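Listing S7. Sequence submitted for prediction.
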Amino acid sequence: MDFRRHPIRIVAPLTLLLFLSGGSLYYWRSSSVRLTADGQTRRIFTDAHDIAGFLKEQKIVLGPRDFTTPDLKTPIGHKTAVKITRVTVETEVQISTSAPVITWQNRTRENLRRVLVQRGYTASVTKKYEIIRYDRIEISRTLKSEKKGRQSFFTLTLFNKNGQPARTYNLLKCRMLKMRTTGYYVGEKTVPSDITYLGLKLQRGLVAVDPTVIPLKTRLYVEGYGYAYAADTGGAIKGLHVDLAVKDKYEEARFNRYNVPVYVLEKTKKW
């Protein structure tokens, strides 16, 4: 018998070929898609007929602005390339400010130490942009709104003995009391001593307060008078009343006023 013509001689190789390639038959029947999405590229075999079906098959969800290249209706053929572009829309706010504009200032050494008081404003422009990004890369930037404004400031700066700024207070954020002011000075009949309650020698800038309203050892700013330090008390100083140390009787008359803004800065051991 001629073995070369035996059925086994013919069938055996075909059987072996089918066995070895059995795992690949699915791929021969399927289409190949080269998918690029979210920074990765991979090859996927699919039975889907178009890109929309392919994404559904792979459970890939598109965002409301995401898109594919080519589009979702494109049929899938041999080695189809599909790219998913993720689209994000963001809002960005930019605030630019100008140099401060000083409308009023007072630099003095009259009360206790050198101080600088300033009023003014800072102009600002607020711009709101809509930014569109494709796969985190900015594609467009659209100005949606622009608003101009002013930010007022009212500050008091204390200087040290070397003339360097030591502390700045934002008076707009400090507690403010409307108080009655009076003046007192050494030599006045109602002033028994030139030493304050805290043991300090009386001088311009030291003031008497009601400790239940303003604690002793508190730094203050009294409009029209200047920087002050709560260092004294008095039997007639009750409630919203502050008595200001002045030079003489002529200056005393200037400070007999009502509803004067008094800014409470901070409590500290030194003026």
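Caption to Listing S7: primary sequence and predicted structure tokens for the chain studied. The chain has a mean pLDDT of 91. Residues 7-21 form the longest helix (15 residues).
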